[in-house]
Structure formats: C-alpha cells, structure tokens
Amino acid sequence: MPSLAGRLAQEDGFAADLDLTEGLAPGEVLAGAELEGCRLTGAVLERAVLRDCTFTDCTFTGCDLSMAVLDGSRFTDCRFVECKALGVVWGRAAPAPLSTRPWDLERCRLDLGSFRDVAAVGSRLVDCSMREVDLAGADLRRATLSGSDLVGAMFAGTDLRDADLVGASGYVVDPTENRVRGLRVDAVAAGGILRALGLVVEG
User: Fold this and answer.
1) Which end of the chain, C or N, has fewer beta carbons within 10 A?
2) Residue 24 in contact with residue 45, Cβ under 8 Å?
3) Residue spans per domain, the chain
4) Which candidate, 100, 102, 101, 105, places its Cα nearest to that of 85?
5) Across the beta sheet with 34-36, what order do the strands follow?
6) Secondary structure of 117-181 in the HEC alphabet?
7) How far is residue 174's CA from residue 38's CA, in Å, rounded to a whole number?
C-alpha cells in the first residue's frame, strides 16, 4: 500500500513542510504541518499527536484517528467521511474562524469522544455513531446531527438553538438544562422533551 506521503504526492493543490514515509506510528508527533487541498484516504493516525498543524480544504476518507491528539491544529473547510475517530477530544483543536462550518463529519465513528465547550455553530455531524459523546457546553446552533446515533450522549448547557436532530436516535435532551429554541426533532423525541417538562403525552 502506498505510504501516506505517496498518497499526498498524487494530489494537486497541497503544500507540506514535512516528509511522511509510512504514516504515523502510535504516539508519533506531527508538528507544524501545512496541508491544503489534499485528500487523505485510509491514513492511519491512531494515537498520533497532530501539534499546531494546519489543514485547509482537505478531505479525510476512511482514516483512523482514534485517540489522536489534535493539539492546537486547525481544520478549515475540511471534511471527514467514514472515518474512525474514537475517543477524540475535538476541543483540543484550534478554532477555525474562517471555516464555513467548524466540523463536517459524515458516517464517522465518534464514540466516547468529546465536543465539550466546542464552538461548533453550523457543523455537520451526519449519520455518525456518537455513543457516549460529551456535548456539554457545546455551541451547536444551526448544527445538523440528523441520522446520528446519540445513545448515552451528554447534553448539559448545550446550545441547540435551530439545530437539526431529525432522524437522530437514542438521545435525551432536557429543555430545562439546554437551549432548544428552534430545535428540530421528530415526533418520538418531541414526546421525550415534553415529558421532561412534566407534561403527559398521550396517544
């Protein structure tokens, strides 16, 4: 299988200031990398430390980022598709204020991770497995979590105004502990929210 460096070299429109030969070994530190317009397919970054890296308009497809440390790295207009990213603390990444959406993840496994206190306005977390993910204090205004599995996910002080949870499953959102004005949910979830307010739902 081509090395990560080889796969990057086949793409146009990227810049890198480092040489990756066989991907990153667990615990290996990648510092100060600058990648733009690249496509990483099947890259193994499990337990790697991405320190102060800059990724712009990059697509990660089928990559393994489980337990990776995003220490000060910035992801601007990047997409993650069908990636495995278990136990990742997304809040360790640097803010990307120029990004059209802070996080764009689709069909990814994000179980046991943390978005605690993350500014994720307008993010897409679509059709993802997000079991036991910590979303406490996250700013998820206008975010889309449709189709995601949120069993055991923690919502506490989460800003869900105008967010979209239609088609998501397994979650419990207490409207007395979270900001939910304009939150879009399906009928089943709506019943749970009403019960949290002490209302009796019949029929």
Assistant:
1) C
2) yes
3) 1-100, 111-203
4) 105
5) 34-36, 54-56, 74-76
6) CCECCCCEEECCECCCCECCCCECCCCECCCCECCCCECCCCECCCCECCCCECCCCCCCCCECC
7) 41
3-class SS of residue 30: strand
Domain 111-203 falls in which CATH fold?
A: Pectate Lyase C-like (2.160.20)
The answer to whether 118 and 102 are in contact (CB under 8 A) is yes
Residue pLDDT, tens place only, 121-139: 999 999 999 999 999 999 9
Which has more pLDDT, 36 or 105? Answer: 105
Distance of CA 65 to the CA centre of its chain: 11
Could you identify the residue written with the tokens 């919502």?
A: 155
Dig out the tokens for 88 from the structure.
Answer: 């990742």
- State CA 83 to chain mean position distance: 10
Task: Please spell the DSSP secondary structure of 13-54, one letter per residue.
Answer: S---SS--SS---TT-EEES-EEES-EEES-B-TT-EEES-E
Joined tokens for residue 45: 């970054």
Domains 1-100 and 111-203 belong to one CATH topology: yes
Give the tokens for residue 127: 């059709």
pTM of the model: 0.84
Give the residue with greater pLDDT, 202 vs 182: 182
